[in-house]
Amino acid sequence: MPISKDLLANYRKRHAAALLGGGEAKLAARRKKGVMTARDRLENLFQPGTFMEFGLHAQHTCTQFGMAAKSMPGDGVITGVGYVDGRPIAAYSQDFTVGGGALGRIHARKICDLMEYAMQAGMPVLGINDSGGARIQEGEDSLSGYGQVFFHNVQASGLVPQISIIAGPCAGGAAYSPALTDFLIMVKDTANMFICGPDVIQAATGQKCTMAEVGSAAAHATISGNIHFVAENDADALGIAKKLLSFLPSNNITDPPHHFADKLDLGPNPAFNDLVPEDPKSPLDVLKVIALLADDADFLEVQADFAKNIVVGFCRIQGIVAGIIANQPMVKAGTLDIDASDKAARFIRFCNVFNIPIVNLVDVPGFLPGLAQERGGIIRHGAKMLFAYAAATVPKITVIMRKAYGGAYLAMCSKDLGADLVFAWPTAEIAVMGAEGAVKILYKKEIAEAPDPAARAAELAAEYRERFASPYAAASKAMITDVIEPAQTRSAVALALRNTLSKRETRPPKKHGNIPL
Amino acid sequence: MKKLRITIDGKVYDVTVESLDDPAGAPLSVPSAPRAAVTAPESSSPAPAAQPAAGPGAVTSPLAGRVVSIDCKPGQQVSAGDALVTLEAMKMNTTIAAQAAGTVGEISVGVGDAVAEGQTLLTIK
Fold first, then answer.
1. If I label A416, which of A144, A234, A308, B26 is the partner at 20 to 30 A Cα–Cα?
2. A234 and A217 in contact (C-beta within 8 Å)?
3. CA-CA distance, A343 to A303, in Å (whole number)?
4. Where in the sequence is the domain holding B28, given as residue range(s)?
5. Residue A281 near chain B (CB below 8 Å)
6. Do A369 and B64 touch (CB under 8 A)?
7. Which positions in chain A touch B88 (Cβ < 8 Å)?
8. Across the interface, do B92 and A334 touch by the CB < 8 Å criterion?
9. In this predicted model, what pLDDT tens digit does every residue of A69-93 receive, in sequence order?
10. What CATH number should be reported for the domain holding residue B109?
């Protein structure tokens, strides 16, 4: 006996209607504007035919404000699991064509169910945000839904990687779900994200401002530091997400996808030597060093436009996935400031929790001097880097390229902060402070009593520099593993990573440390 | 009374100049210390870090330092990425490059000047 024709016809009709979300007209209008539909986005993300949908037939439960008769296919969000590069990824995509993608009780429930599944199965979660906000007709059910999503974001944090794409509006409380995830990708022009928009700001404070200033991708990428990547359009955003996933493990108990080479290339690369300027005052472009260090110069920079005095991102070094944290002397002389410390500390903690080895490239003259920095809390913010490095148990490899001064040197993962292996170029200057400042303290009396104090100070500074502005004083005290020629950097780091991958470091159990937030 | 900013040996002084033709004016006052001295606000809560006002086209200094060289001339056409000014700060030279193409307008600093974070170095039209 074959299945009843009526049942099958009914199934096919319901299935097709649900797949159309807000209806063909609305979907066509979006595509005409060059914006993908919620389902287009998932189809673009996943390998063809691999998407298993959860809750296609879900509907809202609201009966007030004339909602009882209204159909909301999937309750405005598509959830499920599909494959990216052969690995399962849990994803949800808010459907703006269904009630403006607004979040109601069942909508939130679907997202939370997906996250619970992803946590148990150990797979990354990708959320595509495109929503008008809370579904006002559902009142406190909608508010409660947001709370549940936030709670699940926090449960998943550190268990599975969480990536958010902001593809449309993401306003008010809705912005806090992406903010709780690991990486935010925002689409230029079509997306905006804010807690209070220009109208509310003006009503409350009288201050006039524009959406571009408050909630654009550019504002978040450069000023607020709320996002990690800016995408040109939907397809670009999904491309960035896939690229990012290619460096990440599926969960916190697996290793990242290393591509082990059969044999390591341990030869020198003279191009490194050519990058180092002869004049110690000429800045070195650390992005060029990273391009030589990374396999195929393939480096995914994270927060490229925010706190550019520090560079962070992912690459492979002879097949081994690594997180790079590097001072950028081209910007603000490579000093550490509040934003740079926040950016680096968060990245270090991400790498640590997902078993990604860390490689630190050091050329730091110190913390940025300034009233705004001191009053903005550089002590508290700089401390985050110290905390994050000292707390990290993944392999930590440090290369001291040139300047390594004072507390900022420690904050870039010195041996004392737990670096497993430390290499220094012959150009390294490892010292507690600059020569000029040091001699003023060490020889205060002698300089004051000299016939020509300025000349004596310069003489003493030169002596001090000779003695300390080199890696050999630190090397003689066994504070570094070896002094290497820059040309050996890639081979030394690759071998160091290979040697250290099996590292196991156990510490006394505790709920968590108390990082100075 | 007119407020002027003068630079002597790389130190910046804010001075108030009184016109002697004006009998009602206050006496000439020249602060003896460079502007580096900062007084604490009276209120116990710190004021937010205000960005110094910079006009349209102003190229500002990203950090406090000293001008090592002026790498452009007024009226010169520049493209994005061209070096405009070189500063030395924290024992490192920092090149200030043009963000966009344009014509160099007024250059407000000279070699050896100490500049503050956010201070206008020159304008690009």
1. A308
2. no
3. 8
4. 1-36
5. yes
6. yes
7. 281
8. yes
9. 888 899 999 999 999 999 999 999 9
10. 2.40.50.100
Q: Within 13 Å of residue A216, how many CA atoms lie on the same side as its CB? A: 12
> Which listed CATH number (3.40.190.10, 3.40.50.20, 3.90.226.10, 3.40.50.720) goes with A271-428+470-500?
3.90.226.10
CB contact under 8 A, A330 and B117: no
Distance between CA A337 and CA A382 in Å, rounded? Answer: 7
Rounded Cα distance, A42 and A93, in Å: 7
Instruction: Based on the fold, state whether residues B26 and B66 are members of the same structural domain.
Output: no
Report domain A5-245's class.
alpha beta
For residue B40, count other CB atoms closer than 10 A to its CB.
9
A312–chain B Cβ distance below 8 A for any pair: no
Residue B17 lies in a domain: yes
Catalytic residues of A: 172-173, 407-408
Measure the CA–CA gap between B62 and B65, rounded to whole angstroms: 9
Nearest-CB residue to A329 (from B63, B65, B92): B92
Inform me whether the C-beta atom of residue A333 falls under 8 Å from chain B C-beta atoms: yes
For residue B105, the distance in angstroms to the closest alpha carbon of chain A comes to 24
What one-letter code names the amino acid at A480? Answer: I
Indicate if B24 and B62 belong to the same structural domain.
no
Place A348 in a pLDDT band, splitting at 50, 70 and 90.
very high
Sequence spans of domains, chain A = 5-245, 271-428+470-500, 435-468
Q: Report yes or no on B42 lying in a domain.
A: no
